[in-house]
Structures are given as C-alpha cells and as structure tokens.
Write a structure and sequence with these properties.
273 residues
Length: 273
C-alpha cells in the first residue's frame, strides 16, 4: 500500500494524504486497527478531514454524530421517514415528496449493525481497507479518471446528487458497485470539514486502487505536458524508479497540433474551392 501511495504522490501533485476507510463489523475488528479512538461525538466528514491531514482516526457507532453518514455507513438503521422522502423535504432539498422519495430509494446504505469506522492515511493501514479516498482538484481528478479508464474502460456507474457526498457518493457507492465514483462534495461536508472551494473527492474500492495508479503512470506520456513530466521523473527517481519509460514530447495533442499545422502549411487556395 505504501509503495503505491508514494508512486501516486510522485505522479500527481496531491496536497492531502491519500485516505483508506475500513468498515469494522465487530469490536474485535475495530480494535485490530491502530488509530486514535473518538471518545465523543464525531462526524464521518471530520474523521476524513483529520485523515487527509495525516491523522489516524476511528470511531464507534455510538459516537457517530451525523444522521446521514450514520445511516449510510450502517451505524444506524434506515428510518421510514428517510425512505418516504420526508427527511429530504424537511431539509428543503427537493421540490416534492415524490422526488425526495425517488432519490432516497437510490441512496445506498450499508446493512445496519456496523460496529465502527477506521479512517486514516492509506500508507498506515495494517491490512487492505475497503475504500480509498483522494481529495484533490479537477485536473488531478481528470488524471485519475484517465488512469482508471486505461485498464477498466468507460465507467458508466457515476452517481451524484450533491448531497451525502463523502459518505454515500465517495464511500458507499464505490464499495457496493466496485467502481470508482466522483463527488463534488456537498454543503454539509464543506461546512463541517471546511474543504477548499475547488476540491473534489474521488472514491474507489481498494481492489482497483493499484491498477488505477498504474494506469496514471501508463497514460503520462500521452497526456502530461513536458513540464509535468520533468517533475514526475524527478519524483519517481527519488523512489528508486528510473522512469526511463517517460519521455518528452509524447503528448498526443502535440502530435495532433503538429499534424494540423503541417496540413495547413500544405494547403493552397485550390483546397478551399
């Protein structure tokens, strides 16, 4: 895990730690993971923010303070009020009960009975977590999608509502669908965790993390500008990787630009008649 985390940090200019999330179904599983254990109320978003800053956090169901994430992560039971759409209507998020209940029906939740959640930098995990979270900007998100697509093809399972972003869109959706998902974050997590306005969260199952990082590496020649390639080569070499497969001038859009310029240079007035 640490090897691929370091490689990802060499490939992309990330400003926050790559995060791992583990669902603990029993107290024994919860106790196995080393992390600072919450002693009072804490939201899932706050735990993620702490992990993004380099801290290892875990909390039990009894300490989960956010109703939405508690429901989504299996820490509390799903209520009839939520399924009916009344919860969403009470928050002023929907035009009608019909719309609210339709969205609620599509919001996946883990089975109730989860003991707790472990959230910490991926490189610190003792064993494989369930989900990986990457909080970054739109350009790095583009690179993540390109790396994922290199091996797995087009992802037609993206799910976004702009609500329950960190818990549902970035965590439960990737876990249940075994696919990457992107979230623009939501007002709740932006308020609680104070994310930057330009930040986006990428969630993917850990089982697809390593190949996605490899995909980011494999597509670097085709999509990265030379200035970025120089930085990538330097960072990879610090890890003992010679990066001999990365070369300057290989971006596909430069070749297309050169081809277009050559075609224009060979054109004559007759070409436009």
């Amino acid at each position: 895990m640490c090897q691929y985390t370091k490689k990802l940090e060499a490939l992309l200019p990330l400003t926050r730690k790559v995060i791992g999330v583990k669902f603990a179904r029993t107290q024994e599983e919860y106790d196995f993971y080393t992390a600072r254990s919450a002693k009072g109320p804490i939201s899932y978003c706050s735990a993620v923010k702490c992990a993004a800053c380099g801290h290892a956090i875990k909390f039990e169901a009894k300490h989960s303070s956010c109703p939405g994430s508690s429901r989504a992560l299996g820490l509390k039971a799903v209520t009839d009020e939520f399924l009916s759409g009344q919860t969403g209507m009470n928050l002023g998020l929907y035009e009608s009960m019909e719309c609210a209940s339709c969205v609620a029906a599509k919001m996946p939740c883990l089975p109730f009975g989860m003991w707790g959640i472990i959230v910490k930098p991926l490189e610190e995990f003792e064993s494989a977590p369930d989900v990986v979270l990457v909080i970054t900007n739109s350009r790095c998100t583009m690179r993540f999608i390109q790396g994922y697509t290199y091996f797995y093809g087009a992802n037609d399972h993206f799910f976004m509502t702009g609500n329950q972003a960190m818990c549902v869109e970035a965590t439960v959706i990737p876990y249940q669908n075994d696919r990457m998902n992107i979230s623009m974050l939501c007002s709740g997590t932006r308020h609680k965790a104070q994310w930057n306005d330009d930040e986006i969260v990428i969630g993917l199952p850990f089982s697809r993390f390593e190949k996605t990082v490899e995909g980011i590496r494999k597509t670097a020649n085709a999509v990265e500008p030379d200035a970025r390639k120089k930085v990538i080569i330097e960072e990879l070499q610090k890890l003992g990787d010679p990066a001999s497969d990365i070369f300057m001038g290989g971006a596909y859009y430069l070749h297309l630009q050169q081809k277009t310029a050559a075609e224009r240079a060979g054109a004559t007035c007759e070409s436009f008649k």
